[in-house]
Design a protein that fits this description.
There is one protein chain. By secondary structure, the chain is of the alpha/beta class. It has two domains: 124 residues, Rossmann fold (3-Layer(aba) Sandwich), CATH 3.40.50; 94 residues, Winged helix-like DNA-binding domain superfamily/Winged helix DNA-binding domain (Arc Repressor Mutant, subunit A, Orthogonal Bundle). The protein has eight helices and twelve strands. Strand 3, helix 3 and strand 4 form a beta-alpha-beta unit. Helix 2 packs parallel to helix 3 and helix 6 packs across helix 8. It is globular. One of its GO terms (molecular function) is transcription cis-regulatory region binding.
Length: 229
């Protein structure tokens, strides 16, 4: 089986070369860009299997690239791993809200980055092989994994990738209570270094978009969240 193609986006040439060297060593095909504009153009033209995206880019920054990618039908399903400055929690939370799949802080271990990429691509392949799963709530809200969309009374609700995956995960296991850590592992994979606040922020945004159906997601105080039976 041929290896997947990864688009690396960073304006620092030494970091670009470091990531490229390690991923090529794993057999991945590599595309590269040094600006946000170039990244969007390549993503639309070549459709990589994953993007490694530095948030601190000249011109269009990484958050704007993520926003564009996740709101464009051609690129919205491309997983994104963000490269962030250490301690920039606000950027991390913003990126996750926009639909990024994972992040790693600089300076980073190339082995850790490679492991996270491998895990995301493995889940992507596995999800692609699943039979479509459709979950209904009271006959009005439909979560359609095959179409990767949520509708309420026939109207499409625009969700980020993280919001969709979180809602799907909880809805498929109605009544089960999950900790924030379990939710992170389910939608992003093991060893995903994310704060509890990040999951809470995703939940807040999701509830706002669900409107009257926000009560479907219940907070279990001191434990986590569940989808109401």
């Amino acid at each position: 089986m041929s290896k997947e193609t990864i688009l690396i986006v960073d304006d620092e040439e030494d970091i670009l070369e470091l990531i490229k060297f390690n991923l090529k060593g794993e057999g991945y095909n590599i595309l590269q860009a040094m600006t946000g504009e170039e990244a969007i153009k390549i993503a639309k033209q070549s459709g990589p299997d994953l993007m490694v995206l530095d948030l601190m880019l000249p011109g269009i920054d990484g958050l704007e690239v993520t926003r564009y990618m996740k709101n464009n039908n051609t690129t919205m399903h491309i997983p994104i791993v963000m490269l962030t400055a250490k301690g920039e929690e606000s950027d991390i939370v913003a990126g996750l809200e926009l639909g990024a799949n994972d992040y790693i802080s600089k300076p980073f271990s190339p082995r850790e980055l490679t492991a996270r990429i491998r895990a995301i691509l493995r889940r992507r392949r596995e999800n692609g092989g699943e039979a479509p799963v459709r979950v209904r709530q009271e006959g009005d809200m439909v979560i359609d994994r095959a179409k990767h969309q949520v509708t309420i009374e026939g109207k499409i609700i625009e969700l980020t990738l993280s919001e969709f995956e979180l809602l799907s995960f909880l809805a498929e296991k109605k009544g089960w209570v999950f900790t924030r850590g379990q939710i992170v592992d389910a939608i992003h994979g093991e060893n995903y270094a994310v704060t509890e606040r990040s999951i809470d922020v995703i939940i807040v945004g999701l509830r706002k978009k669900l409107g009257a159906y926000s009560s479907c997601i219940e907070t279990v105080r001191g434990v986590g969240y569940r989808f109401k039976e």
